[in-house]
Amino acid sequence: EPEVTQTPSHQVTQMGQEVILRCVPISNHLYFYWYRQILGQKVEFLVSFYNNEISEKSEIFDDQFSVERPDGSNFTLKIRSTKLEDSAMYFCALRKSSYEQYFGPGTRLTVT
Amino acid sequence: EDQVTQSPEALRLQEGESSSLNCSYTVSGLRGLFWYRQDPGKGPEFLFTLYSAGEEKEKERLKATLTKKESFLHITAPKPEDSATYLCAVQASNRDDKIIFGKGTRLHILP
Predict the structure, then answer these.
(1) Distance from CA of B99 to the nearest CA of A (A)
(2) One-letter-per-residue 3-state SS of A15-68
């Protein structure tokens, strides 16, 4: 059984539109992460979120990205004005014990 | 700069033909090295964590080993269901939690 689910599984949007990707953990966790994987490329770190605050972000995570934990359980990634190059798989991950991170099934974002 | 390099990029084996995948890493202080399995269109599935040189972990037909500069994922007598991309990743001890991934090795086991 997966530790975390993500919705939607696939999102198609037009360039310039806002999208919100959601991550729903099975149980309560303090540490969350977003990664992305452009087709055929490496999995890349975007942002880490601890105790309701951003703890680290990459250079990819610019002003068009934001993260929230709106209701204390779900964890969201918002892209304000999507670009063609934002097309990728977006993965939410959580940390259980030690430093191991468990990934969700991903959301495929297609920007047209 | 922290870096992970995996080889080969792709590997085709006959069912039952054992082999090893390589992961070379450069990191400013290793907190942990991770192996994941990724099926097409899916999220990485956690396999192992290795923390120090000399450590070994096993799971079914897979065994992961670690030295100071590289890690190996040994696959013994693989089956077609072992076909997947295997990702190696590291976490630096002087960083927060981010994981740095390699490009992966695409493994295809022929029946």
Answers:
(1) 7
(2) CCCCEEEEEEECCCCCEEEEEEECCCCCEEEEEEEECCEEEEECCCCCCCEEEE
% residues pLDDT > 70 (chain B):
98
Task: Say which CATH number the domain at A82 has.
Answer: 2.60.40.10
Instruction: Look up residue A91 and give its amino acid.
Output: F
- Flag whether pLDDT at A11 surpasses 80: yes
Radius of gyration of chain A, Cα coordinates, nearest whole angstrom: 13
Average pLDDT, integer, range A76-95: 96
CATH number of the domain where residue B55 is located: 2.60.40.10
- Is A112 within a domain? no
Structure tokens at B102: 């390699």
Across residues B54-66, what is the average pLDDT? 97
Facing residue for B97 by CB, picked from A31, A58, A106: A31
Q: Which residue of B has its CA nearest to A32?
A: B97
Is the Cβ of A90 closer than 8 Å to some Cβ of chain B? Answer: no
- Residue A71 belongs to a domain: yes
A56 contacts in chain B (CB < 8 Å): 95-98
Range of the domain at A12: 4-95
The domain of B98 spans 3-110
Chain A nearest-CA residue for B44: A103
Flag whether residue A55 sits within 8 Å of chain B, measured between CB atoms.
yes
User: How many whole angstroms separate alpha carbon B18 and alpha carbon B77?
Assistant: 5
